[in-house]
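Fold these two proteins, one after the other.
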Amino acid sequence: MDDVDFHLISLRPVGGHEGLRRAARRRGGKVMAMSPRRIALPSNGQTRRQLLDALTCTCVVFTSPDAVRAASKLRALKAKRGQQFFGVGEGTRRALQRVGVASAKAPDRMDSEGLLAMPEMLALKRGDALGLVTAPGGRGEIARQLQMRGVRIVRADVYAREPVTITNATWQRLRQVLDDATSPTFLALSSGEAFDAFIAQTPSALSKRLRNVTLVAASDRLAALARTHGFRDIRRATSARPQDLLAAINIA
């Protein structure tokens, strides 16, 4: 096997592993890409209309950097006077800033619960509208909690996550990584949907061994999800950003 200090399994979408790779290399590690999904960008008229409607709201929430990138390809993103754009996490806030929304905000606690606790979200009242720029299945807790308070959600699904079949050759490489007794293996968890898709594809011969790796969860919700799947050695990262996931691994 490679002469590395540790291996890090990444479940990010196809083509989305580079940030983790750079962060892992700086600490002497190597990322193993195990993508169970890819990002698809629809550009039909319905998607454009949904986005236009969402962007008319006073508060607009983007649920991921992918949502920002997809939306910015459909139309220029610019906060109007009195309008506020939010990212669920710091990575999304920075993505908004890169496309020109300098005033974008993100919660200190970088997850759905942290966003909902922001003063601007707490100030929303019955009858108000919130734009939610996301993907099918994404961040359902935000919409659910706000709708319970009578807030109208104007949703724009600007990209889709399509399933990817992990190849037998990739599973064989994972088996070799798990066989490497000289380097510990970690699993980075930043998406519950990706995690469920990965677990569903895991060969039975690897299932028990996989649950012996140390899992690094980007939120309490994801840590709880990992426990339901039988993982016990779980570390909590402060966010899904690569540097925060690697900091939780704590290998110098």
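Now the second one:
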Amino acid sequence: MEESVSQQADSSHRGDDQEKIQITYEVLYEFLRIEKNNEELQKLNEEFFLNTVNYLSEKNSILTNQQTQQSLFSEDEKENTAVQVKNIKKILQELYDRREKKIIDMAVNKSRIRSNIVDTSALLEEEKQLFDRLVSTLETFRQGILDNLVSAKVPKIKLPSSPGQDESKGADSGGQESGPSPLQLTSKLVRFIKPVPKFVGKELEQYGPFEEEDIANLPADIADLLIQKQKAEEMKG
């Protein structure tokens, strides 16, 4: 007996790799329904992305063929295929959005509890990369902001070096300490000594309002102007 759409989707969500799941419009819709109805991230077949790309490429080819051979296909056929392709993309968009939100929540939880008890078994390989990057970024800023604040220290963010960055620094400086980063050269950390209402920068970006004793990292030209007008003073580490 032919397996139902619901059974195929359920099999894929359980991660049953022994049989290849055939992607169809109905199967994608069922994936979305299951993802909607469960708080936890649902497990997908590890070849889900590849199978979906093949399916959508096939649908796009059919649509292109119908549009180029107008005499062989009715307007209704072409319209139906175009609508289906559009709906497939909508399903994929919503499926991704829902999984993305769950992955973000998982990363936030892991960052907050600082534990490895978060279950990541439902993540696809690309989603695992997203999760790891989110956790790393959240932990960096949590340590730089919260840990410093509760220790009565000014927040300080130490961003990890990108691959190859340390090597290039070593080659350029011969192992000596590098100079200020581009961010340090273009911004200044200031403490406000007088209230400053909300104002607009050169690129129409909004700043403020700021109260006395507020601390902010501002573009150097704006910081210099505030210091010159005795509205703020630079904080040097």
